[in-house]
Amino acid sequence: MFKSSNPKEMAKTSETHSPEKLNRIVTGTRIEGVINTDSNIRIDGEVKGTITAKGRLVVGATGVINGEIVCENADIEGKISGQISVNGLLSLKSTARLECDIATKKLAIEPGAVFSGNCSMGGGVVKEFKSI
User: Fold this and answer.
1) How far apart (Å, rounded) are the C-alpha atoms in residues 77 and 119?
2) Least crowded by CB within 10 Å, which of 20, 65, 72, 126?
3) Can you say whether residue 81 is alpha, beta or left, with left for phi > 0 and alpha for psi between -120 and 50 degrees?
């Protein structure tokens, strides 16, 4: 009934990395296990395990992750222990605290962020997404 003949408009409706498709783990929530998502995810609670996101990962100031992360882009304000692989831009905000190994194409670090571990930058795809 409301079909568009414009291919660009049709592509927008099926885009999986759009901001309206957001998974959220709120403060006070603890998850242990594996999280796979085709869209964006925000963590304000605690996750112990593996997170694979084909979109953007945001770890809020109260967010804590202990495990492995694979995502397209990431904004980190909270704490991460383990490994993080970002295919695009990894942005560490001033409140970020990381004790992990980083593999990313681009890295931005605000003054005040703390990082302890190894960092590998540049090149093409850092790590392929696991099938969901």
Assistant:
1) 18
2) 20
3) beta
Name, in order, each residue with C-beta under 8 angstroms of 5's C-beta and a sequence gap of 6 or more.
Answer: none
Name the nearest CA neighbour of 73 among 108, 49, 21.
Answer: 108
Please say whether the dihedral angle defined by the alpha carbons of residues 129, 67, 53 and 85, taken in this order, is positive or negative.
negative
Residue pLDDT, tens place only, 59-69: 999 999 999 99
Q: In this prediction, what percent of the chain has a pLDDT beyond 90? A: 75
Residue 82: other Cβ atoms inside 10 A: 18
The Cα 51–Cα 37 span in angstroms is 8
* This model's pTM is above 0.90: no
- The whole-angstrom separation of Cα 91 and Cα 77 is 9
E strand segments, 1-132: 22-25, 30-37, 40-43, 46-59, 64-76, 79-92, 97-109, 114-116, 119-121
